[in-house]
Design goal:
The protein contains 12 helices and 11 strands. It is an alpha/beta fold and 357 residues long. The protein binds 6-O-phosphono-beta-D-fructofuranose.
Length: 357
């Protein structure tokens, strides 16, 4: 029997915002409405909007002219309806019922969700509850399993790399150690990529717990070789060897990673050290052209999947080709940096220290 033609779909953005969300919304909405004769319902503030039935029909002018716009026209939240609820608990069932009821009240044939790991966990749960769901991979951390890259990542690498470039000149002027913290609490893709692109002398990522003695001896060697300044790039999720051994996995530590690294440097070396935490600058602003291209490719692919009734998957990039993977892949685990990744090898070959030698 021919698959039913999707007539109306809902779209929401969930989790941390990033450049490229509006480009992706545009990609889905323009192609679905203009080429596949669909209606699009915008759901506000992530899954919060589906719980509260806070949604409205999008008109063509709503998703026109937003390709280069930062943030998300729909708003977002970190609402994860099934978090901390057992799959069959009363709480989970009532939330699932609310979401299913509103999905039906809105007359949806499909729900398109743009988000990261937590978003795809919820998407997978909703698919299991019988809804038609398609995911698009979004995160500056690039830690979504199942795709080589998520949109938002390239723009964040551009921002962080440019910041590191700027720190070189001030570090050089003051003969200082500059420690810069970039985002990425589970995976170090952003720190690794921006660190190599920005010529970081030391790059610390969550996947390689660091030894402060290794950091300090690398800095001292540079100093003795006449290099009076150094740049240390730290992922917010980087931990020392001792911290990695702690039983409880702490998501947030105070002070944050860069301050912990800087204080260990200052305790041991007589070298002026300063800290910069890039924070939300990496999440703001207009998407890079690379992210606009990726978000458009992902969005239009999602529209084709809806037209074909191909649900329960996340759009993905594999070896340069746009494809899709079952939702359980991004829902099941994070995409961490392999410690033998070729980019780590290249960095080591140009003398970069990862705090482990
Ligand atoms: O998940 C992307 C991300 O930017 C992480 O890199 C960062 O740790 C987190 O979101 C910040 O979350 P929030 O926006 O809720 O403060």
């Amino acid at each position: 029997m021919a698959k039913p033609k999707t007539r109306t779909f809902g779209i929401l953005t969930s989790g941390g915002d990033c450049p490229g969300l509006n480009a992706a919304i545009r990609g889905v909405a323009k192609s679905a409405t203009e080429c596949f004769d669909m209606n699009v319902i915008g759901i506000s503030n992530g899954f919060r909007g589906l719980i509260d039935n806070d949604a409205h029909l999008l008109k063509p002018q709503d998703f026109s002219g937003i390709l280069t716009l930062g943030g998300t026209i729909l708003g977002t939240s970190r609402e994860q309806p099934f978090k901390n609820t057992e799959r069959d608990s009363a709480a989970a069932l009532s939330k699932a019922d609310t979401l299913k009821d509103n999905y039906r009240k809105l007359g949806l044939d499909c729900l398109v969700v743009l988000g990261g790991g937590g978003t795809h966990k919820t998407a997978h749960q909703l698919q299991k509850e019988g809804l038609n769901v398609i995911g698009l991979p979004k995160t500056i951390d690039n830690d979504l399993y199942g795709t080589d890259v998520s949109f938002g990542f390239a723009s964040a690498v551009d921002v962080a790399s440019e910041a590191i470039d700027r720190l070189h000149s001030t570090a050089n002027s003051h003969n200082r150690i500059m420690v810069i913290e970039v985002m990425g609490h589970r995976a170090g893709w952003l720190a690794l990529s921006a660190g190599v692109a920005g010529g970081g002398d030391i790059i610390l990522i969550p996947e390689i717990p660091y030894d402060s003695d290794s950091i300090n001896s690398h800095l001292m060697k540079r100093y003795r070789d006449g290099k009076k300044f150094s740049i240390v790039v730290v992922a917010e999720g980087a931990v020392s060897v001792e911290e990695a051994k702690e039983k409880e996995k702490r998501k947030k530590r105070d002070p944050s990673a860069a301050y912990r690294v800087a204080s260990r440097i200052e305790e041991s070396l007589d070298l002026e050290t300063r800290v910069t935490v890039l924070g939300y600058i990496q999440r703001g602003g207009s998407p890079s052209p690379q992210d606009r291209l990726l978000a458009t490719r992902f969005g239009t692919h999602a529209a084709k999947m809806m037209a074909e009734g191909d649900f329960g998957k996340m759009v993905a990039l594999k070896c340069g080709e746009v494809t899709s993977v079952p939702l359980e892949e991004p829902a099941s685990k994070a995409r961490l940096v392999p410690t033998d990744h070729p980019l780590i090898e290249s960095a080591r070959l140009v003398g970069t220290c990862f705090g482990d030698d």
